[in-house]
Design brief:
Structural class: mainly alpha
Number of strands: 12
Oligomer: single chain
Number of helices: 23
Strand content: 5-15%
Shape: elongated
Strand order of the largest sheet: 1-2-3
Distance between the termini: 94 Å
RNA sequence: GUCCCCAUCGUCUAGAGGCCUAGGACACCAGCCUUUCACGUUGGUAACACGGGUUCGAAUCCCGUUGGGGACGCCA
């Protein structure tokens, strides 16, 4: 019998090959329906043998050998029809704060994976921690997902509404002898932990004195229900991203599944809900990887088939530190406020940890077409706002003018800028030129403000400095000249060129003062476009005003 | 501390033993384009963490070291 060490091959190879193997095994075996699958053989799952069942669950089925070259895609060439049930994924945030960018990516991957396989993508709100969950946070999460275009396919499941079911399963485990009542007080547990730490020994809970206890002899302490951890062997999880992950069962201890107040713990509730919701693929953050071993105890003790697991790496902040609320705009809606487009955020998030050759621009339909768990990397990545901003610019330039105009006007209003119908029309007219030179909606809004507002613009310092007496004289003269011009972009351009030719100046020498008069800034869209968008009356007003 | 996971330019990544003198993108630098600013375009700087193996050949497979992250709750 090889030792665990010896059979632990290199991460990379075992990762990829195990992922392939695992999923292929499941695919060829078909995913048994979860409904009642456990009940059929519930009787032969008694505690003494359940870890044997665990170790021989469907992951270990023999797998036909495939040469790497001819290997079909993880699922692509393994037609879905061959599977007994369609893919169902879920995103399961806890409503203790805003949805941050890491959660958004988890949701995105769940969504993409489900869509790619024509399956369903669900949402479950893990609100069993009543002290920290809030209705506002739930709403925030829903809003954020909606903004990202990641709303679930079915009504969200509130985990708190399922507590009776969680307790029922815990009791069933108790009845099967796979779990037991433990009468330790929180204080006693804390003491045990402190003691272990003082002795520099890893703390491992020992509940042997409670097992088989005569109820009459029980202390008058409200008990918790603890599940019996397997006592020998190891637990192996074929992770679709991380590869085959294993731990010696000696590392596991008897975890609490039902608190003394009768509410379930997370590790228990997740399993029951994922099973009942018939989730086939659990795609979540890396931080849950070691939890998976514990969750397997519940699956196995109930005789339920485990779902496929895929643990995606975490996102770190730009400085490499763990992503937190203290590091920039991590709340999803903060990105909206900063003027990022949801499709750009999704594209950026997708590329963080997932790649398909050199493709950088991956809009939603293409993402659905290409997305595969086997292409998800295993190392944590960092937020790079510069790249997100660049990508946002790409999407912005490709975006529909009407939509952008609406966004800009909304943001102008948000800023308290006054503008009328004419102003809105001017922004609309200038949008094709405006969007070429902005990377975010906020930049776009700032750049569009001069067009929306009525009357001569305020001059920014740089512009004011360039508005010399000579420039003013030029503007006065130019105003005369432009008076008879046909007010159409191409004609205006020709007139300006003629003017500068006649005056023996370069076009730039004429355009720049004009730009300042019209926009109040040294930077603007092409001057002919600005002139045309503003219209004769408004443009002449501004030129004359600047000419003094 | 124990267990688990990870490691290619500054950042995101491509890479399935020979196509690698390591490719792309962002950022940065220089040039071109140009009525400003952008866009675009041309070129440049820049990486296989380290040490051992295996092999004719290693970024790629194996072992170890170092570094980083995560989990160890009647939180999720």
């Amino acid at each position: 019998m090889p030792t665990a060490r010896a059979t632990t091959s290199h991460k990379a190879s075992r990762g990829r090959s195990a992922a392939r193997r695992g999923s292929h095994a499941a695919a060829s075996a078909g995913l048994p329906g979860h409904r009642g699958a456990g009940r059929a053989n519930a009787d032969d799952i008694s505690f003494p043998i359940f870890h044997r069942v665990r170790n021989e669950c469907n992951w270990n089925l023999p797998v036909p050998r495939l040469s790497p070259r001819s290997r079909p895609g993880l699922y692509g060439a393994q037609p879905l029809q061959a599977r007994a049930m369609s893919v169902r994924t879920r995103f399961a945030p806890s409503p203790t704060g805003f949805l941050h960018i890491g959660g958004a990516r988890t949701a995105l991957f769940n969504f993409l994976f489900a869509r790619h396989h024509g399956g369903e993508y669900l949402l479950r709100i893990e609100d069993t921690d009543k002290a920290r969950s809030t209705a506002e946070a739930v709403q925030q999460i829903l809003d954020s997902l909606a903004w990202l275009g990641l709303s679930p396919d079915e009504a969200p499941v509130m985990q708190s509404s399922r507590e009776a079911r969680h307790a029922e399963v815990a009791r069933e485990l108790l009845a099967r002898g796979a779990a037991y009542l433990a009468f330790d007080t929180p204080e006693e547990l804390a003491a045990m932990r402190a003691e272990a730490e003082a002795a520099k020994r890893p703390f491992k809970y020992d509940g042997s004195r409670w097992i088989g206890l005569d109820p009459a002899a029980a202390p008058s302490v409200a008990p918790v229900i603890r599940i019996k951890a397997p006592r020998g062997g190891e637990t192996v999880v074929p992770d679709l991203v991380q590869g085959e992950v294993r731990v010696a069962n000696a590392e596991l201890d008897d975890m609490i599944i039902l608190r003394s107040d009768g509410t379930p713990t997370y590790l228990h509730a997740v399993v029951v809900d994922d099973h009942d919701m018939r989730i086939t693929h659990v795609i979540r953050g890396d931080d849950h990887l070691t939890n998976t071993f514990r969750q397997c105890m519940v699956y196995d003790a109930m005789g339920w088939h485990r779902p496929h697991f895929a643990h995606i790496p975490l996102i770190h902040g730009a400085d490499g530190a763990k992503l937190s609320k203290r590091h920039g705009a991590v709340g999803v809606m903060e990105f909206e406020a900063q003027g990022f487009l949801p499709e750009a955020v999704c594209n950026y998030l997708l590329r963080l940890g997932w790649g398909h050759g050199d493709e950088e621009f991956v809009p939603r339909p293409r993402a659905i077409e290409l997305f595969d768990l086997k292409d998800v990397g295993r190392a944590a990545s960092r937020m790079d706002y510069a790249k997100l901003t660049h990508l946002n610019g790409v999407y912005l330039r490709a975006a529909d003018d009407a939509r952008l105009t609406e966004e800009v006007l909304k943001r102008l209003t948000r800023r308290g800028v006054d503008f009328g119908t004419l102003g809105g029309d001017r922004v609309r007219a200038l949008m094709p030129a405006l969007k070429e030179r902005a990377k975010t909606l906020e930049e776009l809004t700032s750049a569009a403000a001069f067009a929306a507002q009525e009357g001569p613009p305020a001059l920014d310092p740089k512009a004011a400095a360039q508005l010399t007496p000579e420039a003013k004289a030029l503007l006065a003269d130019l105003a005369q000249f432009l008076n008879d011009a046909p007010w159409e972009q191409t004609d205006l351009m020709n007139w300006l060129r003629d003017y500068s030719d006649v005056k023996g100046m370069k076009l730039g020498q004429v355009a720049q003062p004009l730009r300042i008069a019209l926009s109040g800034s040294t930077q603007s869209p092409p001057i002919d476009a600005v002139l045309a968008a503003l219209g004769r009356t408004e443009a002449m007003d501004r030129i004359l005003a600047a000419a003094g």
